[in-house]
């Protein structure tokens, strides 16, 4: 009998990679989203406003699944609102499915802000000593990741299903309109630099430029999600997930520049965030899109300046230990440079960059 999965946030960078993987392996896949973006071919699209309990119940009426994957959030004006809204979205889905989930599995994707704190208090508290390990637990701050976890834990006890929590670092992957997508943002930035003559300046901090870091390919995260949902040893566990290699941005910046045929400007020692320098990007991108017949002329559907600034501007080292999932049997690996190059190739093939 086929495994039947519901992916909440199916059109996002994680959800789309997971849907493609599960469909290729013969799963029946339902994708729940707001309906603003296309879902992978073969996925049964379900549409609902996840903040509405009634809308979610209607969308999921009669749907029978044994695996649920959450990779969704809605950014609010502060963390207390993030907690209220994002916690409710998880609760609405799990309560709508209810006892149909008995004996099944629910996987929740969060991230390293579990250790760093939310955007409201990003790195302002006492950040644990790196590399981050799952046993470090929660920070003493409000965090919507914790609220989402608590909703999963409570529903697991009530409806008798197993769970897993997955904590990627910054994700490299393909998704149009995604709010947290560094790979696409850097592709757009490099393209703008090439076609307007702007210098390809690293926007982040000295710590990120000089220090060692890691990242997570969306396809590798999809591999871990499927693994955890189908392995008893992964039940009721939290797992970090990164590619398995490390790098310094001072090296990776030149690799990205080489791909686009531009010069990587040496780091000046001062942060130069993208959000403050991309005031003309919308008009410039419309011209580039028209010149090269690109599919997406709205730069804001491809790039998220604020999120890339937040990741590259971190004042502390961010690196992850993945021993726990290795010991449990997950052996996935992805070269991060290759992940960037493969994403850029796909963006070109899809006519999203020239």
UniProtKB/TrEMBL annotation:
Xref: Gene3D superfamilies: NAD(P)-binding Rossmann-like Domain
Domain of life: Bacteria
Signal peptide segment: none
Matches recorded under CDD domains: 5beta-POR_like_SDR_a
Limits of the PRISE-like Rossmann-fold domain: 65-354
InterPro entries according to UniProt: NAD(P)-bd_dom_sf (IPR036291), PRISE-like_Rossmann-fold (IPR055222)
Protein name: NAD-dependent dehydratase
Organism: Winslowiella iniecta
Taxonomic lineage of the native organism: Bacteria, Pseudomonadati, Pseudomonadota, Gammaproteobacteria, Enterobacterales
């Amino acid at each position: 009998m086929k495994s039947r999965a519901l992916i909440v946030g199916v059109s996002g960078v994680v959800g789309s990679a997971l849907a493609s993987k599960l469909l290729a392996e013969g799963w029946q896949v339902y994708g729940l989203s707001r309906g603003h973006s296309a879902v992978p071919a073969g996925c049964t699209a379900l549409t609902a406003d996840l903040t509405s309990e009634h809308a979610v119940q209607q969308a999921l009426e009669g749907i029978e699944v044994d695996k649920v994957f959450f990779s969704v959030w809605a950014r609010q004006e502060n963390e207390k609102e993030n907690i209220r809204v994002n916690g409710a979205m998880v609760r609405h889905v799990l309560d709508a499915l209810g006892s149909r989930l008995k004996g099944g599995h629910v996987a929740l994707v969060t991230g390293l802000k579990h250790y760093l704190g939310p955007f409201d208090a990003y790195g302002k508290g006492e950040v644990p000593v790196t590399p981050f390990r799952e046993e470090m637990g929660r920070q003493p701050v409000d965090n919507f990741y914790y609220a989402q976890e608590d909703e999963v834990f409570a529903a697991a006890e009530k409806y008798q299903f197993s769970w897993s929590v997955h904590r990627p670092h910054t994700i490299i992957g393909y998704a149009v309109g995604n709010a947290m997508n560094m790979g696409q943002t850097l592709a757009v930035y490099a393209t703008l630099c090439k076609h307007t003559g702007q210098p390809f300046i690293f926007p982040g901090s000295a710590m990120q430029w000089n220090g060692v870091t890691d990242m997570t390919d969306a396809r590798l995260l999809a591999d871990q999600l499927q693994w955890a949902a189908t392995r008893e040893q992964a039940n009721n566990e939290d797992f970090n997930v990164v590619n398995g290699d490390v790098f310094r941005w001072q090296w990776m910046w030149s690799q990205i520049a080489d791909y686009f045929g531009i010069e990587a400007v040496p780091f000046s020692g001062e942060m130069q965030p993208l959000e403050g320098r991309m005031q003309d990007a919308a008009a410039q991108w419309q011209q580039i899109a028209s010149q090269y017949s690109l599919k997406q002329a709205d730069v804001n559907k491809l790039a998220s300046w604020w999120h890339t600034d937040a990741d590259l501007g971190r004042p502390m080292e961010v690196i992850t230990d993945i021993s726990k999932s290795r010991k449990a049997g997950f052996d996935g690996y992805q070269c991060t440079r290759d992940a960037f190059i493969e994403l850029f190739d796909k963006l070109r093939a899809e006519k999203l960059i020239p």
